[in-house]
Amino acid sequence: MIESYHLTVVGAGYVGLATAIGLASKGHTIDLMEVRSDRLEALRAGELPIHEPGMDAAFADPAIRARVHPVSGLPDGPSDLILVCVGTPMGENGRSDLRQLQSALEAARPLVQSGVPLVIRSTLPAGSNDQIVRWAGGDQTRIFSNPEFLAQGRALEDFLAPSRVVIGTFPEADPAALAVVKAVLGGGSCPLLVVTVAEADLIKNGSNAYLALKLSYANELAVLCEELGADVMTVIEGIGLDPRLGRKYMQPGFGFGGSCLPKDLRSITNVGRDLGLEMHVTSAASEANESHQRRFARRVISVLPPGSKRVAMLGLAFKAGTDDVRSSPALRVAELLIGRGLEVVGYDPFAAHDAALALPGLRLAATAEEALAGAGVAVIGTESPEFIDLDWRAIAATMASPVVVDGRRVLDGSTMRALGFRYEAVGAPTSA
Ligand SMILES: NC(=O)c1ccc[n+]([C@@H]2O[C@H](COP(=O)([O-])OP(=O)(O)OC[C@H]3O[C@@H](n4cnc5c(N)ncnc54)[C@H](O)[C@@H]3O)[C@@H](O)[C@H]2O)c1
Fold it and tell me: What is the band of 2 on the pLDDT scale with cuts at 50, 70, 90?
């Protein structure tokens, strides 16, 4: 039986909700502090303000829900630990925008100054330590960095069964405070690393940047395959059989997105540059990612039949299974197509609302079939299983021309061609 703590989680986004619901499922009591009234209202009504598989079922459990108390400000009651999970999005200049963090830490100051330990679960750019302590106004010996490594689409699962728990400490960390942090966040069977704050932040930035490098590399191989008439899926299968290399994060596409990988790639590049270092590898991966999205948009335009100006974009989120459109490659391509005077009709099972807000010129359809009717080309923008199961035979008759560009390699090319489609795919030889 684990000891039960009274915890304050700040920020009810993907990480904050996974943290709050995950810790509540372990028996802790949570004050979940959030500034957005729409998110608070949803939570108070017993609904999740985001789409995340498995999390709504956990939140529907009365025992878990009873332990999560959504609050708009610092709770009056006791707190054993503050866990800060607010956003640190990429700012205009490619650096992490730390304003949410500053306001959260300043708000938490009274608790910190009364001796409550604080962990930052948000992703920090390496080297931001001094201002963190200043904003929290507290004794650095009770402030910790505990980066989260979850992947959206499996956020709660990853929180509950992490690959590792990393705790970054400042010099002369208070042993009693560290013990509370370990008791709340450790305890599983995975390795627990206690390191410096700079090391913790670099483990996080470095992990995400490495994942981004692998994806960029797979996408670059796909471009090469297209030019050489080879199939990248075969090439990657062969590469992945080498146990030193593996197959994970080598799924080719037309770019990666989300709130983490593009940001951390830019962040680690800028941290290095601020130190006078030329970050050749990470800066090239960022540029490659942008160029893969532009190249894909050109490819879509190149197969649009003469006279047709309508493109159906199936999948608008940054990946399947989420409603998150932050840095979504599908939306970026839609934006480029709209910029070229084309009409883009988008469909996504979860992300339509946020996609419309993010890209005002985008037209939305309520179903995939509606988006496809009258379109000159269908673009597969995410790997949603729904797109595989569509009745493509029936759809061929409703499109202005049966052309598919598969940006995620989810459809079977020979089946699509047998149904009369011109089928083009990332990293595949161009069809006749
Ligand atoms: N999304 C992921 O997959 C993921 C994975 C690992 C780490 N991270 C990192 O975790 C952090 C959070 O990411 P996210 O995706 O959950 O972000 P998010 O934008 O979904 O959620 C952040 C929440 O914090 C709230 N907030 C902002 N300021 C606040 C304040 N002062 N008080 C209370 N609430 C406040 C916002 O309103 C928002 O609801 C980021 O640093 C991100 O880089 C994200």
Answer: low
